[in-house]
Design brief:
Helices cover 66% and strands 6% of the residues. The chain is mainly α.
């Protein structure tokens, strides 16, 4: 139902744009939620996006739509504006969103805009942190209770706080601003009036530093089902909060990045690049596959005499490599996902997982080896071909599942992103080892059969 609604909205917006029906366009934009408007605009060209954005009549809506749209929409909107006009829109955003968008602008323009913002010092502090860290996505505006506050005083402070970032619990600091506890709103409301906050708070608080990678922050939030997580400095002073809505954005971006890496297409959103940009992003990743193909050809050349004598062997090579490659990619994808959600430890104890994947490869290799081996026997007219193809299937799938399961773990342990393992690295390794195993088995059986 929602997909149909968005499709109808998208078609209606584009139809009004084509007809230059400004009045109808304004009316439709006025009654459409910002989230739905941004979703419909995301698949339009820049000119159409700008036309629709111009129909937003308040700075608050303009700011909200900018934060909902993917990069570089904010840069496109704010770059032509004067610092004063840009600041009017940015004032309606949370400081972390301001920092993200200003970081995309030219240094001079960003500095001029900051000069027009009352929150400039706060935003500049956020801009010091990298985009993919807890400091880069945290919200510095928060309400923290004092540990020696009474429940009555704490409740009064909550009522007076106004529009601050707060979920279902609040954090507690001491007189020096150091994080000492966390308190759920339910517990605060149900506590007796004269009780001290320190008596009902929990002191077991999980926090992160500004330099913590955003993927690790997202993993902690997902693991413990948090709605927010505090960010502290080296002295445990509370600096800000990372809330679950920011974590959802992180998970989406990281998942997109991993999927692109797994496909060997880089880590950027390729739909925002032209032909030249896509070629530049994909070329280095595909280079590994081409090198692997050349190495595979080199391995095959070692068995040139065997191939020349038994040409039928070459007919079944694509089937063996294709099936093995699929098994390797499946195993690697399973392991990468397990690493991403923290179900695999990098300290040790992973042999059981690798053994499981190898056993799966053995079983599937045996089943497909029998099936395709019988076909090879029938087509080539000799049990030699059937046995060679069957054993090659078993060997190829064991190799593929072993490589696919172990390579992401190895890469993670040495500090590389495991997502790259499911692309060119796994495919290249499986192809080279699969070719060597296939023709090695073929040459060995030739001697055994006396052919």
């Amino acid at each position: 139902m929602q997909a149909n609604k968005l499709r109808l909205l998208h078609e209606s917006l584009r139809r009004y744009l084509r007809r230059d029906a400004r009045a109808h366009l304004l009316k439709l934009v006025e009654k459409t939620r910002d989230e739905e408007l941004a979703a419909a605009m995301s698949s339009m060209v820049v000119e159409e996006q700008l036309s629709i954005f111009s129909c937003l009549t308040t700075y608050a809506r303009q700011a909200h739509v900018i934060t909902l749209m993917a990069e570089p929409f904010g840069q496109i909107i704010l770059s032509p504006l004067t610092p004063t006009d840009a600041a009017r829109i940015l004032r309606e955003m949370a400081p972390d969103d301001m920092a993200d968008i200003l970081a995309d602008l030219s240094t001079d323009h960003a500095a001029a805009i900051l000069g027009s913002l009352e929150e400039s010092e706060e935003v500049e502090d956020l801009m010091r942190y990298a985009d993919d860290t807890a400091g880069g996505i945290m919200i510095p505006e928060y309400l923290a209770l004092q540990s020696d506050d009474t429940v009555e005083n704490a409740q009064e402070r909550l009522r007076e706080a106004g529009d601050v970032e707060m979920v279902y619990y609040v954090y507690v600091v001491n007189t020096h601003g150091h994080l000492v506890g966390v308190l759920s709103l339910r517990k605060l409301v149900t506590a007796l009036p004269g009780t001290r906050v320190s008596e009902v708070m929990s002191t077991d608080v999980i926090s992160v530093t500004p330099e913590t990678d955003q993927e690790e922050v997202a993993s902690l939030v997902a693991r413990y089902s948090f709605l927010s997580i505090p960010v502290v400095d080296d002295s445990n002073k509370l600096l800000g909060l990372v809330t679950v809505d920011d974590v959802i954005d992180v998970l989406r971006d990281e998942a997109t990045e991993d999927i692109l890496k797994m496909a060997g297409a880089g880590e950027d959103l390729t739909d925002t690049h032209g032909v030249r940009g896509n070629v530049q992003i994909r070329f280095p990743w595909l280079l590994a596959s081409s090198i692997g193909g050349l190495l595979g050809a080199g391995v095959m050349s070692l068995f040139a005499e065997t191939i020349q004598t038994h040409e039928a062997l070459a007919f079944f090579l694509p089937v063996i490599l294709g099936m093995s490659g699929n098994v390797g990619t499946q195993s690697a994808t399973i392991i990468v996902r397990a690493l991403a959600v923290g179900r695999i430890s990098l300290v040790g104890g992973n042999w059981s997982i690798i053994r499981r994947e190898v056993l799966v490869g053995l079983i599937m290799g045996t089943l497909y080896g029998i099936l395709v081996g019988l076909v090879a026997w029938a087509v080539a007219g000799s049990p030699y071909y059937g046995l060679t193809v069957g054993l090659a299937f078993v060997a190829g799938m064991i190799i593929a599942s072993g490589v696919g399961a172990s390579l992401p773990i190895v890469l993670s342990r040495i500090g590389f992103d495991p997502a790259v393992a499911t692309g060119p690295l796994v495919t290249t390794a499986v192809d080279i080892l699969g070719i060597a195993a296939y023709f090695g088995i073929a040459a060995g059986l030739l001697r055994a059969f006396g052919l």
